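Hey team,

Filing this mostly as a record. A colleague (T.K.) asked me to run one chain through the structure pipeline before their review meeting, and I want the input and output archived in the tracker in case anyone asks later how it was produced. No errors, nothing strange. Just documentation.

Input sequence:
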Amino acid sequence: MATPILRANKLVKSVPTAEGLLTILDGVDVEINSGEAVAILGQSGSGKTTLLGLLAGLDLPTSGTVHLDGEEITAMSEEERAKARGRYVGFVFQTFQLIDSLTALENVMLPAELRRDPEPMQAASRYLERVGLAERTTHYPRQLSGGEQQRVAMARAFASRPRVLFADEPTGNLDLTTGARIADLLFELNREEHTTLVLVTHDESLASRCDRRMTLAEGRTVP
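Output structure:
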C-alpha cells in the first residue's frame, strides 16, 4: 500500500479584511502518497497558492492539521517548521527567488550550507551540470535569461534531495518554448529523483503530466 507523505485534514484559512473575514480555504482535505505527482488546479483566487503554503509549512491554517512525513507541522513552532522544510522540502517558484548577489553555484549551494551538509559545492555543481548550466556557475542572476534562472532554481531545489518538491506556476514567467523545456526538465528530474511533486498550475498541459489532479474553486475541492 502506498504511504501518504502529505496529509491535510479540514484546512481552513481565513484573513481579516476591511469588509470582514475572508475565507480563502474552507475545509480542504488532501492526501498525497510518496512518489506521486499531483497537480493543484483552479482559477485565480481559488486558494491554490495558499494551500501550497500550508502544505509546505510556510504558513499556518486558521484551523485544521497538516502532516508531513508523519510529523504534524501545524503543531510546530516557526523554527521547528523551518527545520522540517530544510529536511523534507524543495521549492520552485514562478519568480525564481534567486539571490542577486550570489552566483548560480552559490544560489544552489545555499540551502545545503544552511543545513551544514558535507560537500555542498560538489552537489551543487552536479545539479547545475544536470540542468545544462555547467558553464554558467560563476554567473549572477542578472547575467542569466529567465529560463536559465529557473534552471538554477530547479538545481537548487533538487540538490537538497527533498522528499517533496512544491512547484508554484514554475513556467508562468516564461515564453511557451522555454516553459515547455523547463517542464520537460522538471518532470525528468522528478522521475529520476523519485520525489513527490505538488504542482500548482493553471496549465492543463502541465497538469495532464501528473499522476492525478485536484481542483479548487472558492476555497473548496471540486470533482
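Quick notes for T.K.: Residues 161 and 193 are 8 Å apart (CA to CA). The radius of gyration is 17 Å.
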